[in-house]
Amino acid sequence: MGADHAAGGPAAGIKSNDPCWCGSGRKYKRCHRGMEGRVLEGRVSPMLTVPAGIPPTPYYATGVVERTDERMVKSPEIIAAMRVAGRLAAEVLAVTGAAVAPGVTTDELDRVAHQAYIDRGMFPSTLNYHEYPKSICTSVNEVICHGIPDDRPLEDGDIVNIDVTGYIGGVHGDCNATFYVGSVDDESRRLVETTRECRDLGIAAVRPGRPISDIGRAIQQHAEAAGYSVVRMFVGHGIGQQFHMSPSVPHYYTPDASTIMEPGMTFTVEPMINIGGWREKMWGNGWTAVTVDGSRSAQFEHTLVVTEDGVEVLTPEPA
Q1: Structural domains of the chain ordered from first start
Q2: pLDDT band at 14, cuts 50/70/90?
């Protein structure tokens, strides 16, 4: 299941031991007290299907992901295929983002994205990946990542991250962005813009011959200077013929991120930045991570290739 606000709201003067306003039969203090305004789990519709003519991911039929010994440094042919996959994934993200509006459910955004993949001959990489049930991730407000699209209507003032990964030509293209829903408060706008800057500064730190830890150092310095925190649990990752592979790309500084960047290496930079603390907790669905303190979180992502003198973004935003 994914994110959903509970219907209705607390009655005026409700007390801790009163029956909860939601009708659950539980006491208010055991049910919705402390959860007002939080994103809660909603109803998830059945998995969508893809036409037989579009080659599926290797794991689609079973939901079981088998790792292969794929090199971090890619051949020119693989990089060329990834340029195509990245460009098309960025188009799917733009199309889906354009559908964001108050009253639109995240499940409707999933259907928009699903059709956009199909229109481009792509297979949604997330579909049945470790049994994930949807074609995108939609992470609203305090959801850090991996929110599952559901029947929750977006509300005026929300922020929503849309995470798109498409598979075509035997490779994946992965990108995401955080969108405003209607009229958004200044603090949320500042968070979103700072997060975009963090991604771009992380990308600017990519240089052959330098350790991957340079990326996290640049991101953490900018985020913390703005008064925000950087999520530790979820990191960028290598990508190519596999959806996730080495290297890991932390978005905070750690000397353990000692892999030296080489021309031809492909990976994502996708910082998750929180207004409050960086710690997360997981929902029972096994996918959705939210901030422990309920503060809002934003994220932006590109897929990259290290070049001889810097970096190339493989998921450029459509002109």
Answers
A1: 1-37 (no CATH), 43-313 (3.90.230.10)
A2: low
